[in-house]
């Protein structure tokens, strides 16, 4: 085994670490992934019947305000000028999301000015004025008042998490902006766009280095192959981006995750819904949203005979399912603290990424956090002999 560094998982976190270590330090890096492809959840491929690029593990929109990350990702791809907008269906009517002046005026059948709308929402959120809500239910009501919360958040969140919003962290809802203008951009970030030639072309360019050896369909916990936990830990430094509870054999209990079932359908029409994402905010529709991927790339000359759509159904992940969203209840947070202690004590193994830190990281956050791990731990270790100890699973 000749690698200087082993990276478990070829998602954005793992590939960023591998690329930096190979390009800047000249290290030999072996990257393994148990899937048959690289890229983790950002992987995309062409749907055969339509020729349309489909994000295999759910719609992925790139956005960031981090200059360092933006400069870094532009080394591997250019970005289109796609700007993400989402619409939501409530009681058979389509509203612009996230909540903005357009949503408020349509919902209340009004013509409020920004100041009038602010005053109305402040009055409707009055029951929680001056508090600092820690859970999603109270935070949601405080942000937009009870009527809008019940129309657009309560049931969608119920379908997405199947957990009482009072038991969910407030941070989940703080991801969404609330605006008192008609601006319905979904993200607030400085930079936004989709990789011009698709996610897979971008990801392949990151891994395309003579010092990077990628081994697919290889599970770190399969002791019959050479790059396994038993064969590697202790002899070669490891960056592990799989689930942290799995690494420690669930010693502190299972962390809870949501998974998504995607129901894909090819339809004999050039346009099913006129936009890329439509949320279904009511309880009587079982799916959370419908994605129509052709609208992610209006600049491409896709054929107009057919389209492909995906309905998303969210449920608790069982062992064997893809863990997509950390649920992060009180009980999960207690277990996570125990896993952090174990991670700190694990010599020469660093834990990173969405699964390794049990954090709801967007792509730019995973890349940013990998760049920090590289600068603060990996580079000082290889250049100056600094001990390779994890800061816990909170890089
Ligand atoms: P991952 O991409 O999950 O990669 C981890 C890799 O480790 C996987 O390939 C896995 O197969 C591998 N692995 C795990 N265990 C083992 C093992 N035992 N042996 C070998 N390999 C193993 N972010 C955005 O910025 N915008 C979005 O619009 C967006 N939408 C999303 C939608 C969904 C449905 C999901 C789930 C995520 C979304 N994200 C989005 C988040 C984005 O996917 C993550 O930020 C990114 O994938 C994080 O990269 P990562 O490397 O940490 O993890
Ligand atoms: N959310 C909601 N209604 C919506 C959109 C989002 O209640 O129409 C809530 C829901 O709890 C969701 C969270 O806001 O999990 C974050 O939304 P986002 O669109 O960022 O979720 P993701 O794309 O990561 O699934």
TrEMBL record:
<dbReference type="InterPro" id="IPR015899">
    <property type="entry name" value="UDP-GalPyranose_mutase_C"/>
</dbReference>
<dbReference type="GO" id="GO:0071555">
    <property type="term" value="P:cell wall organization"/>
</dbReference>
<dbReference type="GO" id="GO:0008767">
    <property type="term" value="F:UDP-galactopyranose mutase activity"/>
</dbReference>
<comment type="function">
    <text>Catalyzes the interconversion through a 2-keto intermediate of uridine diphosphogalactopyranose (UDP-GalP) into uridine diphosphogalactofuranose (UDP-GalF) which is a key building block for cell wall construction in Mycobacterium tuberculosis.</text>
</comment>
<keyword id="KW-0413">Isomerase</keyword>
<feature type="domain" description="UDP-galactopyranose mutase C-terminal">
    <location>
        <begin position="151"/>
        <end position="360"/>
    </location>
</feature>
<comment type="subunit">
    <text>Homotetramer.</text>
</comment>
<dbReference type="Pfam" id="PF13450">
    <property type="entry name" value="NAD_binding_8"/>
</dbReference>
<comment type="pathway">
    <text>Cell wall biogenesis; cell wall polysaccharide biosynthesis.</text>
</comment>
<dbReference type="GO" id="GO:0050660">
    <property type="term" value="F:flavin adenine dinucleotide binding"/>
</dbReference>
<keyword id="KW-0285">Flavoprotein</keyword>
<keyword id="KW-0274">FAD</keyword>
<dbReference type="InterPro" id="IPR004379">
    <property type="entry name" value="UDP-GALP_mutase"/>
</dbReference>
<protein>
    <recommendedName>
        <fullName>UDP-galactopyranose mutase</fullName>
        <ecNumber>5.4.99.9</ecNumber>
    </recommendedName>
</protein>
<dbReference type="GO" id="GO:0005829">
    <property type="term" value="C:cytosol"/>
</dbReference>
<keyword id="KW-0961">Cell wall biogenesis/degradation</keyword>
<comment type="similarity">
    <text>Belongs to the UDP-galactopyranose/dTDP-fucopyranose mutase family.</text>
</comment>
<dbReference type="Pfam" id="PF03275">
    <property type="entry name" value="GLF"/>
</dbReference>
